[in-house]
Design a protein that fits this description.
Structural class: mainly alpha
Order of helices and strands: HHHH
Largest sheet: none
Number of helices: 4
Number of strands: 0
């Protein structure tokens, strides 16, 4: 089902682009965000930083739903519903966005701490290897360095 919505979304973006002024910076930013969401990610499956960046890109909930329609009556109904529910959708969207931002902050802290722990573990492995080599030399009767 997801594959069927992507061409429709791409067609909707193209149709909206034809109707809008391409020099509008806010509109261009919105199109770029939508394009990034549709883009294929080449990141490795276990790359936590890339996953956090993907969450950060998707964390903002867009509550400005489209009201365009081929039929004028449908566009009017959509606009009326949008105006009646905008305050509630904005409130819910803001709460979800705040949760997403908190998740990104938490994930960033976890990734940073994990990186520090991996560096410390690598240093301990190097120290352990040096100590093991020294013990082996001592056991063979070699002089300590």
């Amino acid at each position: 089902m997801e594959g069927a919505t992507e061409p429709r979304l791409a067609a909707e973006i193209a149709e909206t682009a034809r109707r809008r002024d391409a020099d509008d910076p806010a509109y261009l930013a919105k199109v770029r965000r939508a394009t990034r969401r549709l883009a294929v990610s080449d990141d490795e499956a276990d790359d936590a930083r890339a996953a956090l960046l993907a969450i950060e890109d998707a964390v903002r909930i867009d509550v400005d739903e489209p009201t365009i329609s081929r039929r004028r009556e449908a566009a009017i109904v959509k606009l009326a519903i949008k105006r009646l529910t905008a305050w509630y959708l904005r409130y819910v969207g803001d709460q979800i966005t705040l949760l997403g931002q908190a998740i990104v902050r938490f994930g960033t802290a976890v990734v940073n701490r994990t990186d520090r722990l991996e560096e410390a573990a690598a240093a301990l492995r190097d120290d352990m290897a040096a100590l093991t080599a020294r013990v082996e030399r001592l056991e063979r009767g070699a002089r300590p360095e």
